[in-house]
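User: I've been going back and forth on whether these two constructs are worth ordering. Before I decide, could you fold them both?

Assistant: Sure. I'll take them in the order you sent them. The first construct and its structure tokens:
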Amino acid sequence: MEVILLERVTKLGQMGETVKVRDGYARNYLLPLGKALRANAANKARFESERATLEARNLERKSEAQKVAESLDGKSFIVVRSAGETGQMYGSVAARDIVEILGNEGFTIARNQVELNNPIKAIGLHKVELHLHAEVTVSIELNVARSAEEAERQSKGEDLTSAEAIYGVDEDALRPEDFFNPEAEYEDEDENA
């Protein structure tokens, strides 16, 4: 199906372009969300008559997104979750959790604006991309930790998932031969009894 884009759509085209897309994509996404019109003579004339209004609305949305991006750029948010000693979380941090965290800080972000291919399942510092507008992207940092104190230590650069942090031993000192030596002679406890 051919459609006329009413706004810039990532990986598809700019406002005003006529592009060919799959029918389902047009019917289920582009048309209901008002991002496109079917490409026919009547809609082309309608688009040309409304072009100035659409461009002004797009510019207004972009400037609002840039304001939000400036206040979010480089910010770090602490997420406290329970996790095991090795740093594997019992749950995960998904896009809806990120939206809720940002909402608590006063930012209104939709779930589809969070670029998170896989949920976060380990403690540590994680970069997350937010697509606030088709032309405005911002990166934030999530500090996922077991407690606020651990989050503070992580933000200073400490690795809480290393063997030294977990066991108090340098990782280089943890060699298998230190724990089991097949050539060593062991006394059988039953023989001494």
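The second construct, handled the same way:
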Amino acid sequence: MELKKNPKADLRRNSSLYFVIGLAVVMALIYGALEWKTYDDNNDYDISLNVEDQLDEEVPMTEQIKTPPPPPPPAAPEVIEVVEDEEEVEETVIESTETSQEDEVMEVEDVEVEEVEEDVDVPFAVIEDVPVFPGCESASNKRACFQEMMNKHIRKNFRYPEIAQEMGVQGRVSVMFVIQKDGSIGGVRMRGPDKNLEKEAARIISKLPKMTPGKQRGRAVRVPFSIPINFKLQ
């Protein structure tokens, strides 16, 4: 017996269509599986920052200082007494200081202003008339004579301190003094390596004689002068 196939029952007739449909279904399932996402059921979590409070110390609260209220104003007197002024007050008459044409104007004589002499120190190197050392009055070069007489005075009165000799102290003492406007010596200052040497230098300067004061523009002025005194052991 020969079997006959029904053309309607032929499965290979629409096989390409079925293949495309199956391929589309498989791709849809794969895409759905890749895009599938799951979420937790409990969504009650805190999304705020977890900041630990590191301030363990207690911050004292600021106390508000209460100022006392101002005292109440004094009570007004109940009865105000009115005192009548029985005394007569004399009116003060202010006279005008303006001068009229009839008044005579007194002429004021010229007021003489006395010049105040200022103490000016003029150095020995620039003064016009140098101080005159006793014995240099007739010298042509009084400046050089002054220097020479000063050196003679130092050599004549020089005496080395014994305590400085025993200690082996030597050096130069710078002596500064001022020849005053009356020719006397003042303002003596010393600077040296030892107090004993400075004391001896001051003694030598104190023995200077009174001089003729120096003059600047014909007026006596103070003249500062400085000289070194050498102390040297032999």
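Notes on the second construct follow. The chain has a mean pLDDT of 78. The longest strand covers residues 171-179.
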